[in-house]
Amino acid sequence: MKFQQNFSQAQKQTQKLVLTQKLQQSIQVLQYSMEELVNFVENEALENPLIEVTDANYTLNYSKPKTSNGEEINYLNQIPDTRISLFEHLIDQIHINYRDTYLRTLVLFLVESIDLNGFLTITLEEACEKTGANQIQMLDALTLIQQLDPAGVGARNLQECLMLQTERDDSAPAIAYLVLEEHFDQLAGRKWPEIAKKLNVPVTEIQAVFDYIQTLTPTPGASFGTTDGLYIIPDVQVKISGDHLQVSSNRRGMPEIKFQQNYFDQMTQSKDPEVLKYLEGKKQDFQWLQKTMQQRGDTILRVAEAILQHQRDFFFDEHRPLKPLILKDIAEELEIHESTVSRAVNGKYMETPMGVFELKSFFSQKVGPQSAGDDISADTIKQALAEIVAGENKQKPYSDQKLVELLKAKSFEISRRTVAKYREALKIPSSSKRKRFD
User: Which residues form the RNA polymerase sigma factor 54 DNA-binding domain (predicted)?
Assistant: First the structure.
């Protein structure tokens, strides 16, 4: 049997999309939050002498309120300055409160092993090996650290952290420290009757200790060294006029760019071809940036307008219901890709008379079919679930199966497994953990 291999030539026409660098950047710009956009534009201006950023500040015009004495209130003075790190905060206290002794040297050594949450990450045995100090000296040094601010700093575990905070709080229940010290695991496991029996106190006192513990912080150092989330710059604004919704782009905080025409005219007088080529390239970069920023704003505005058309009830009904809405619905309506809608809503915010909301929060999966006939969103069922749990008898909380039955009575037909999933999403504990004794 002979093997034959035949070669032939043929033309084949295919079509594919090639993403240029500029197109990739345009897609990225749409994904930027307002803060990221400001940083991007400022960086572009640093690299392009023809771009001038004229306004990248978020300003509000308002009449300043006054105190009873007639003095103006400066709210900026009320914003906590958390730029100092936990380490710096502790070092300052050590130098102010403790004399320059060998014990202070050990304190400074231990501070270097405290993490951002305020916990000591080295054992006393390891510290003794590295410093040559004995156990008593190292324990004394740790005790000095644990007397510093914030309360709970220097703890070696969560139990000790809560005990340190309780010890310094005059408003703590009388038996709180004892319960934490001797019955921490049982308290966490909500075995309150067992603890009450051992301490010969009513169960309600143990419950009061548990409630008090919820007011303490498990990470005493986490508030230092960060200002994230201090404010949000919304991309669109919604105003309600009668039964009409008006949405507009938020120009406050939006960086505005201008073309340096005088500089361009001056430099184009040069006869150097390289200079002229450079200027033409930078001019095109400016035009691209201007067009891309305009497209970003237009896309976000169009998406926001489409969202409003679907979620009108959210703005006019006091219960704030959301209709089922997915990215595909908006994409098909605006004739754009789903990924474009995703980029347009993630990290973008809408300012409304009820507050500021992320655009993606207006999307909700459909749950159905329902006996009520209409499509019901998951958020609507979650709201109903939360209301039922809020009104239950805390001494006899509803089981998940009972919640299924109560939701069915409201024409919401979902499984017990779905109830458990929604309950966990709402951070509602199981019935055994919701039980109260008062």
Answer: 277-436
